[in-house]
Amino acid sequence: MNKQRPYTILALASECKGIPYLREAKRQGCRVLLLVKESYAHDPHWPAEAIDERFIMPELHKRPDVTYAVSYLARTEKIDRIVALDDYDVATAAHLREHLRLPGMGETTARHFRDKLAMRVQARDEGILVPDFTAVFNNDDVDHFLSHTPTPWVLKPRFDAGAIGIRKLYDAAAVWAALNELGDERSFYLLEQFIPGDVCHVDSLIWEREVVFAVASKYGTPPLAVTREGGIFNTCTLWPDSAESHALRDLNATLMTALRQVRGVAHTEFIRAQADGRFYFLETAARVGGANIDRLVQAATGLELWQEAARIDLANLSGQPYTPPVVRHHHAGLIICLARQPHPDLSAYSDPEIVWRLEKEHHAGLLVASPDHGRVTHLLSHYTERFAHDFLTSAPPKAQVRTNI
Question: What is the DSSP string of 216-258?
């Protein structure tokens, strides 16, 4: 880099993820600082060669502790950019940027990508279809929603990731009981109509308010169903030239404009309603999708989302243009489930299309890729049946498949 000193990147990590981001930043000559939650501080997967200094805190979301800590660090480290490696760090990173007056996503825009109520209000106000919903601040508003919106309904925490903490309710008495149970936490929830349908996701890169890369995929079992009922999580990229894929990518581009995303990476979910066939916006996040979706995208396109997120940040930092790499148009499918075996034996799965195997206790997972979309969908369907027989177990209360995507 053409500077008297290297750029300094402070990465916030409430989990061990974003490793390709750290490596790319180091490859480009940055000084990389990691502020990490204590429970993940010594994870062996952290790339020691890419981290110059590691700072540990019990929690990264607790204010003012994290503000004091980073402000103290800034006395001796000239921080150029702050990046969130986990969804739970997005709001904290935005707050710290505002406090230290650093460029990047601020607190207002971060709300659009972190607060389920804020993103729905903004999308609805910009003319994007969303399921009927209401805030739960006011009793009269809740009563009106319950009397005018068909059941079932879902009570959603505004700041948890993905399907975590969502409750499906079928009558008004159950809703009021749930709200009363929440007590002072009630205002941190919203109520929404449950719409049956196929849940899809779009993973994209944004540069100067333009979506410069996007790939659309469809879940087999919706993440909410996997989280609530257990089962097998799977997702498969859509045929790029299909009408469904075009519609999803166009809608994602419209949404990024509506939510005022300037640059970075986004993972967004839509549902195609069974009733009318239209796509409704469900939620979005200003980070790489979880549950190994970054591997799915890389297997299909060759593009590593975390690495490109780093390239985008560093291009902006150095005042240079950003151009995404040329991608291939292959297809990929991902399947993961909780396993009853501590170390599931996947050796019987030997098809040449398998490009990655999950190595995690009490989990079974595979990723397949091929130029042939039909072959990928066939394997995913076949493996779903085999996983159910070979590995699937009921989810223990504290050992669920991570679908906070």
Answer: EEEESS-HHHHHHH--EEEEEEPPTTSHHHHHHHHHHHHHHHH
Using an 8 Å Cβ cutoff, are 338 and 230 in contact?
Answer: yes
Same fold across 8-104 and 197-390: no
Q: What is the CATH number of domain 132-193?
A: 3.30.1490.20
310, exposed or middle or buried, with CB in 10 Å at 0-12, 13-18, 19+?
Answer: buried
Phi first, then psi: what are they for 232, rounded to 5°? -110, 125
CATH number of 8-104: 3.40.50.20
Burial class (CB in 10 A: 0-12, 13-18, 19+), 14: buried
The domain ranges of the chain are 8-104, 132-193, 197-390
CB atoms within 10 A of CB 61: 16
Averaged pLDDT for residues 100-120: 95
Structure tokens that stand for 11 in this block? 């990465």
From the options 3.30.70.330, 3.40.50.920, 3.30.470.20, 2.60.40.420, give the CATH code of 197-390. 3.30.470.20
- 145-179 pLDDT, tens digit per residue, is 999 999 999 999 999 876 678 999 999 999 999 99
Calculate the average pLDDT of the chain: 94
Residue with tokens 């002072």: 184
This prediction has a pTM of: 0.93
C-beta of residue 368 within 8 angstroms of C-beta of residue 236 = no
